[in-house]
Write a structure and sequence with these properties.
The complex is a heterodimer of chains A (252) and B (252).
Chain A: H1 3-24, H2 31-46, H3 50-72, H4 80-119, H5 122-129, H6 133-137, H7 139-171, H8 176-184, H9 189-215, H10 221-251
Helix pairs in contact in A: 2-7, 3-4, 3-7, 4-7, 4-8, 4-9, 4-10, 7-9, 9-10
Chain B: E1 2-11, E2 14-24, E3 29-33, H1 40-48, E4 55-60, E5 63-64, H2 70-77, E6 80-83, H3 95-106, H4 111-124, H5 140-152, E7 158-162, H6 170-187, E8 190-195, H7 198-204, E9 207-212, E10 215-220, H8 222-227, H9 231-237, H10 241-251
Parallel strand pairs in B: 3-8, 3-9, 6-7, 7-8
Antiparallel strand pairs in B: 1-2, 1-4, 4-5, 9-10
The chains are: A mainly alpha (252), B alpha/beta (252).
């Protein structure tokens, strides 16, 4: 495809994404119905993801601990293990990789759910009734993502650091006192604020980009599958680009 | 009464509707028939506002629907019920929740009143005991009847049925046809049925519009349909051996 056509296609998607967001953020028809949908999405995005987030965080924290112990040899202080586990979990693993994992789990679910509704005319049915389909289907997911993803990330931080400490002590690479000292050394609250700021942005990206791909699915089951794949790929790509931009903006 | 005035619609180079004009009378079952790809579904989608026509306008009892903003259209949309080809029931909701949905979104009724009205509608389509089932647990005919119950929940003035009998056996199809006829009389609605099923046309139609290559080529009633006169219409109506035999029997 010629570069200008590719650029035009990108502009088309960006414009349509903005239009969809604008339609999504209109006032909901019924507050009571919206609240119910919002709570359901909190459960779907949040509660149902706790298991996978906890599992991955436990193993990552443990592995970071063992890798750091292996790297420091005998000439770097042992408390560095606690320091490295804390910094890795707070700065990058939890705020960036957890949303990437959620893009795979939650994002594909959002895209296939909305995509199926599109190809089976359920979205047309909403529109015919006079329901703002974008607001009804997408806004609760975006708001739930904004609210619940930071909590999952905080959970991930605690689980990862806790697992690191446990594995460090259990394998004898660090004492609990050294690990605790490392965890506290040179700690800046701003690091947590930076991490949670990124997380809110990534929660928005993973829900809205996935919803966009599902909402404009066309055709049949094959296309719903493709839209689901596109949702995951684009969510991850955009999260990574946003990560770079936000890191540059917030840390400088 | 629904009126279509000089409706034209193209997709790229392909002109699907060409200066279409039609009138659908109140209290009657108005059939729109034609071959696949003749433009009848696009005509319906233009009528209900799912697709914007390039030219012309649609009016509902004298109200110019096409000229209205999205917000102002909502009022008319709440007077429209639609039965989709694939039923388009919300698969995450039970049958009762599906029928209650428009009432929850747009009425000021209390929950018990909503349930009562939804059960009345289900009773009208003889599905009063199926309220707790999910759409996936219902047969094709039941899903169509639930679709009808949902469509009439808000006491609509206008009912659109897109291929209401597709995928149904002949006996169930007759049940659906009769139900459409009966509720049209009961609610004094303007009903528009899109179909290419000649059995349905002969069973339930009051007026018939024949669409051919994006134009309304003929308008009349059942007797006129069998009398023929327009070559394209004859080709469509008497395509099957059964219909040719009916004509032959009529001549004898």
């Amino acid at each position: 495809m010629k570069p200008y056509l590719r650029a035009m296609r990108w502009l088309f998607h960006i414009g349509r994404y903005m239009q969809l967001l604008s339609a999504s953020f209109r006032r909901p028809e019924k507050g009571r119905v919206f609240r119910r949908l919002f709570i359901r999405e909190l459960d779907a995005i949040g509660t149902q993801s706790i298991g996978i987030v906890a599992l991955l965080s436990l193993f990552m924290g443990a592995v970071i601990c063992l890798q750091t112990a292996h790297q420091i040899g005998g000439w770097i202080p042992v408390y560095t293990i606690g320091f490295t586990v804390r910094q890795t979990m707070i700065l990058e693993f939890s705020p960036t990789l957890i949303p990437v994992i959620l893009a795979g789990k939650v994002g594909s679910n959002i895209a296939s759910q909305i995509g199926t509704m599109r190809v089976t005319e359920q979205i047309d049915a909403l529109e015919i009734m006079g329901v703002n389909s974008a607001g009804y289907l997408i806004l609760p997911k975006i708001l739930a993502g904004l609210c619940i993803v930071p909590f999952l990330v905080i959970l991930s931080m605690f689980m990862g650091i806790g697992a690191g400490a446990w594995v460090g002590v259990a394998t004898g690479v660090s004492s609990l006192a050294d690990f605790e000292y490392g965890m506290q050394v040179d700690f800046h609250v701003f690091d947590v604020i930076y991490a949670l700021t990124k997380t809110v942005a990534f929660g928005f990206i993973l829900t809205s980009v996935s919803a966009y791909h599902g909402y404009y699915a066309a055709g049949g089951a094959l296309e719903v599958g493709r839209s689901s794949t596109r949702a995951v790929v684009w969510s991850v790509v955009i999260i990574m680009v946003a990560n770079l931009i936000l890191t540059q903006m917030l840390l400088n | 009464m629904i009126e279509l005035h000089h409706i034209s619609k193209s997709f790229g180079e392909h002109e699907v509707l060409k200066d279409v004009g039609a009138t659908f009378e109140r209290g009657q079952v108005n059939f729109v028939i034609g071959r696949s790809g003749s433009g009848k579904s696009v005509m319906t989608k233009c009528t209900v506002g799912l697709i914007e026509p390039d030219q012309g306008h649609v009016s509902f009892d004298g109200r110019n629907f096409t000229a209205l903003s999205r917000r102002d259209r909502k009022e008319i949309r709440q007077e429209i019920g639609m039965l989709f080809q694939g039923s388009a029931l919300f698969d995450s909701m039970t049958v009762l929740e599906n029928v209650s949905f428009p009432l929850k979104m747009f009425s000021n009724m209390s929950d018990p009143e909503i349930s009562k009205r939804a059960l009345e509608c289900l009773d009208r389509v003889e599905l009063a005991d199926a309220g707790s089932r999910f759409p996936a647990e219902c047969s094709g005919g039941m899903q169509k009847r639930v679709g009808i119950a949902r469509a009439i929940a808000m006491n609509p003035k206008y009912l659109f049925c897109d291929e209401p009998n597709s995928g149904l056996d002949p006996q169930t199809a007759i049940v659906i046809d009769q139900l459409i006829m009966e509720i049209t009389r009961e609610y004094n609605m303007t009903t528009v049925v899109i179909s290419h099923d000649m059995n349905s046309v002969m069973e339930a139609s009051d007026t018939i519009h024949f669409v051919h290559e994006g134009r309304i080529l003929w308008r009349g009633d059942r007797a006129g349909l069998l009398a023929g006169g327009v070559p394209e219409l004859e080709e469509f109506v008497f395509a099957s051996e059964l219909m040719r035999r009916i004509r032959k029997a009529g001549e004898i």
